[in-house]
Design goal:
Chain lengths: 560, 167
């Protein structure tokens, strides 16, 4: 993991001092609401429905156990004893007092954490594959490149006030677990035939009001040019992105308006001035960042541990957990374990202070003291010996993180919705819970296989509903909460935006609607076919026919 | 006379800033150093010849369109109609880095303590702090940060070229 030196620490400490002063001046009336708003947002502080909300960065999803303990401590001291993990590898406190935030940031700085650029119209926390560095299908470890981007983007003076927020994701594996196609800039780290590293650069992806898949504008970028090229992309966006309408201000609108070809040409033109300039990465700097992401002290182990195999045979529930929550590791005898934060009855992505401390202890005991956060809102121990999986499973059960549902219907991605978020049009947590309760039979859930269900409480799409196989969007109709269904979305290398199937439903209809969708899938399924494959084969019509059977035909303008 | 920050000092502002009225009309005082909108200067270069004149770039003006060497001017300003409009940062940087402007680069408009550090790093050396803000407090904002990761106009080498690295 990246460890701060005196420079990194100084930058974070100076931010704490700056923000303390900004808060003081705001409370003294020297800064207006309007002035303070962008300043606090760039420090992760929102004013929410009930209280402020503080979003803390977890760069590319990596945490040390000491950092997890600090998150737990802050949840206890300054909040209501829990935190929420988001789809962007951040963590949120839902109830801090505005006056306490400077102190919280000061405490976070002691463990090399902060809220820098977790919100606001700036370059946000860079995200990546939660299995980076350990994935069996990894081509190149994306983390050193994420760290290089993190440093370049932190307090970049020229791009501090962009037309809108700006999100960068980096993937280095065969399977894209970083959703690069739905980011403002998506980067695939590749190897060419000569074994050299290079980047594939996509721009203009994103969800929200106008969901779009990114366009490839640079099929091969040499690593040393990473920052000068990104500078060029950002400068074109900063100067020519729309600022007259916040709904048309994301880079995707500019890319589409110009066409990807013209946008790419403008970037090349801009880049010509920057290329080989002072921001060109040196071998030494690339090597320095790589040194933080070397393998931990793995033991030489057999590919398959005999006791582990025996335990699977003896304990079906353990075998089931292994099947869903244990991910193949590139090192023989090791595995990456996902702790499910999607237990029925608990808001998706939430963890209590006690659970966080347990996770920190388990990370120390089983996984070199490191914890990761996935964009699916779960926690990961990335380096667990097979021989210790059984013991870890028992501990995970004890703390309530062993639900064997990763990738299944109840492992749904869900934003905090109208219970917390001031932007939301509808609640999402109670709907998620009602659906989880409906599909609480684990055998049935397993039989259904992989289904991505994503839910957002409003058009801003924090729950990424557009790329769920089944997407749910909360909409407001005459001041009442309704839910719109999209089908056919997916993330990954063949990312696709789902399509709205028709008029929306009331909250209490949702479990039945979901049952009908699943019934259609089961009726048409051949063998072990996945939901998304059945959908691609039969299309939306059979689903529509079943879901709207017996309903009066009403017209409704689609919200998407 | 109002005060401005120039090269880290609070001094008298000797420039009269001329702003277009609601109908786009510009009324230029008959004497003294004047700061006029860049578009106005483009359209009235001959009439302004002989005057001590500086130009002010609006966020959608393009430094690429400057028909003369930037150093023809002793002062160039960029307007920040709102501090959240970051286009002026890029304009400032381009004037310094691409067009080699060495004179006074002044930020005008919605300029206050919390924007000065970023502005300085984009090459601004003068700050016309908003009249309702305390200029003595604002000047401290220049040094909110004293260490930076990226290349900037004031410290061109990014941290990775300055950071001593253990071999």
């Amino acid at each position: 993991m990246y460890i701060y030196d005196d420079y990194d620490q100084k930058i974070v400490d100076q931010r704490v001092a700056q923000y303390r002063d900004q808060t003081r001046r705001y409370l003294a009336g020297e800064l207006t609401d309007e002035e303070f708003r962008p300043l606090r947002l760039q420090n992760g502080l929102y004013i929410q429905r009930h209280a402020p909300m503080l979003r803390v960065a977890i760069p590319y999803g990596h945490l040390r156990s000491a950092q997890v303990r600090k998150l737990a401590e802050l949840a206890r001291k300054y909040d209501k004893g829990y935190v929420h993990f988001t789809t962007r590898q951040n963590v949120q406190y839902n109830w801090p007092a505005l006056e306490n935030v400077p102190e919280m940031l000061a405490e976070l700085a002691t463990v090399q954490m902060h809220g820098i650029q977790t919100s606001g119209a700036c370059i946000r926390n860079t995200t990546s594959d939660q299995f980076a560095g350990v994935a069996h299908d990894e081509i190149v470890d994306p983390r050193p490149w994420c760290e290089i981007i993190r440093q370049w983007s932190t307090f970049h003076p020229e791009f501090a006030h962009l037309p809108r927020k700006f999100k960068i994701a980096v993937n280095g594996a065969v399977e894209d677990r970083a959703a690069v196609l739905v980011h403002d800039v998506g980067i695939n780290v590749k190897l060419n035939e000569a074994g050299e590293v290079g980047f594939e650069i996509f721009v203009g992806g994103g969800l929200g009001r106008t969901p779009m898949i990114g366009d490839l504008i640079k099929p091969w970028l040499e690593p040393k040019h990473l920052l000068t090229y990104l500078n060029a992309v950002l400068r074109v966006y900063n100067r020519y992105g729309r600022r007259d309408n916040k709904y048309k201000a994301r880079i995707k609108i500019l890319v589409k308006a110009l066409t990807p070809e013209v946008f790419a040409a403008k970037v090349e033109q801009e880049w010509a001035f920057e290329k080989d300039g002072v921001q060109t990465l040196t071998e030494a700097e690339i090597a320095r960042n790589h040194r933080f992401f070397t393998a931990p002290a793995y033991e030489t182990l057999p590919v398959e541990d005999a006791a582990f195999t025996a335990a699977k045979a003896e304990h079906p529930a353990f075998a089931r957990w292994v099947e869903r929550n244990v991910f193949a590791h590139k090192v023989a005898g090791y595995a990456a374990v996902t702790f499910s934060l999607k237990k029925t009855g608990v808001p998706p992505g939430d963890a209590t202070d006690a659970q966080l401390e347990d996770v920190a202890n388990l990370a120390d005991r089983f996984s070199f003291g490191e914890v990761r956060v996935s964009h699916g809102q779960n926690l990961i121990l990335a380096d667990v010996k097979q021989s210790e999986l059984f013991a870890l499973w028992e501990e995970a059960k004890r703390i309530g993180f062993a639900t064997p549902n990763i990738g299944l219907l109840t492992d749904l991605i869900c934003c905090p919705g109208g219970d917390f978020c001031a932007l939301a049009n509808a609640k999402s947590i109670p709907v998620a819970q009602a659906i989880q309760e409906r599909f609480d039979d684990l055998d049935y859930l397993f039989d259904l296989g992989e289904i991505d269900m994503n839910m957002s409480g409003c058009i801003n799409a924090c729950g990424h509903h557009h790329v769920g196989n089944i997407g749910i969007l909360g909409v407001d109709k005459n001041n009442a909460e309704y839910y719109q269904i999209t089908l056919g979305g997916r993330q990954g290398a063949d990312a696709k935006i789902g399509k709205v199937i028709g008029p929306s439903f009331a909250q209490d209809e949702m479990p039945d609607v979901m049952s009908k969708i699943i019934d259609v899938f089961v009726a048409h399924r051949e063998g072990d076919e996945r939901f998304i494959d059945v959908f691609d084969r039969i299309g939306a019509e059979p689903f529509k026919a079943k879901v709207y059977e017996g309903k009066p035909i009403r017209k409704e303008k689609a919200d998407v | 006379m109002s005060k401005v920050i120039i090269n880290r000092e609070i001094v008298e502002n000797r420039w009269t800033r001329v702003i277009a009225d609601a109908e786009g009309g510009v009324s230029v005082p008959s004497e003294g150093a004047i700061l006029v909108p860049y578009q106005y200067w483009l359209a009235n270069r001959e009439a302004l010849a002989g005057r001590e004149v500086a130009v002010c770039f609006a966020p959608d003006d393009e430094p690429e369109s400057l028909p003369v060497d930037a150093n023809t001017f002793s002062m160039i300003a960029c307007d920040f109609p709102a501090f959240t409009d970051g286009r002026g940062f890029s304009i400032g940087r381009l004037l310094r880095v691409r067009y080699g402007f060495t004179g006074e680069l002044r930020a005008v408009g919605d300029v206050f303590k919390d924007t000065l550090n970023y502005l300085a790093r984009c090459g601004f050396t003068a700050f016309d702090v908003r009249a309702d803000k305390d200029i003595n407090e604002a000047i401290k904002g220049i040094d909110d940060f004293t260490e930076f990761y990226q290349s900037s106009v004031d410290v061109p080498n990014p941290l990775f070229l300055r950071r001593p690295v253990a071999a």
